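Input structure tokens:
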């Protein structure tokens, strides 16, 4: 995966399906992160999950045996906050979401309000309320711009699928006739925001993911080399159904440790 002109200096990796499955570490994931730490190379763990703060996610990963520093976790909530800070600094937002999103917006100086907000910002939550969704619809009808952290329509749980941000966004869009701007994967903006955070370059960065339709697509469109691992959502049998390909495909991140250590 290396060449004399294009060394690997930065690693971006998805979290669910690459490092963990539910609350269990994928074999080789703890060793992969440990190898990245020893190498001194820049890296970020990326996730479309907007529920949790990086501190929360670090605790979750540690309970699975994976030690990722808080500063090395980049969420769709953080990417959304960065985007809004660039678009309309010190703005106002009506937020439907949890601590990961509200904390990120507070930290950039945004005011949370339902009075004439600049944006309605929709993130993932386990407690979507009809009242909050109705308020979001009315604010969008009144002129608020519609932003969503990511387009994922469902998420996993031990009991089965859960409705996620994209599903609720579709409900709001049906009621308002307004489509949201999605910041998270597969929008390559998520990749670019991660590169900006690390002060890294696309030419020397690898993106690792388990989903062709989000991780690999966004990495490809951001100009990164991409690695598909088949330890998560996309199986080897599904790969040929897509009109684009990852740069390389491996079984899991355990197969990538040797490249980190080069």
């Amino acid at each position: 995966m290396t060449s004399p002109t294009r060394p690997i200096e930065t690693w971006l990796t998805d979290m669910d399906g690459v490092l963990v499955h539910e609350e269990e570490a994928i074999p080789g994931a703890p060793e992969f992160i440990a190898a990245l730490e020893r190498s001194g190379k820049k890296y970020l763990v990326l996730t479309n999950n907007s529920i949790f703060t990086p501190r929360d996610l670090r605790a979750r990963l540690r309970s699975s045996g994976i030690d990722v520093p808080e500063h090395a976790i980049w969420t769709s909530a953080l990417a959304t906050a960065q985007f809004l800070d660039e678009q309309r600094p010190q703005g106002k937002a009506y937020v439907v979401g949890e601590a990961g999103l509200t904390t990120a917006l507070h930290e950039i100086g945004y005011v949370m309000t339902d009075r004439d907000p600049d944006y309605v910002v929709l993130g993932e939550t386990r407690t979507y309320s009809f009242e909050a969704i109705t308020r979001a619809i009315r604010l969008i009808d009144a002129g608020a711009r519609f932003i969503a952290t990511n387009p994922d329509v469902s998420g996993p749980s031990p009991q089965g699928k859960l409705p996620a941000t994209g599903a609720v966004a579709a409900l709001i869009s049906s009621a308002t006739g307004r489509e949201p701007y999605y910041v998270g994967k597969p929008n390559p903006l998520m990749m670019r925001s991660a590169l900006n955070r690390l002060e890294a370059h696309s030419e020397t960065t690898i993106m690792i993911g388990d989903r062709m339709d989000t991780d690999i697509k966004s990495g490809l469109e951001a100009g990164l080399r991409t690695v598909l691992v088949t330890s998560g959502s996309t199986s080897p049998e599904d790969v040929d159904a897509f009109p684009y390909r990852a740069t390389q495909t491996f079984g899991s991140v355990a197969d990538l440790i040797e490249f980190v250590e080069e």
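The longest helix spans residues 76-87. The mean pLDDT is 94.
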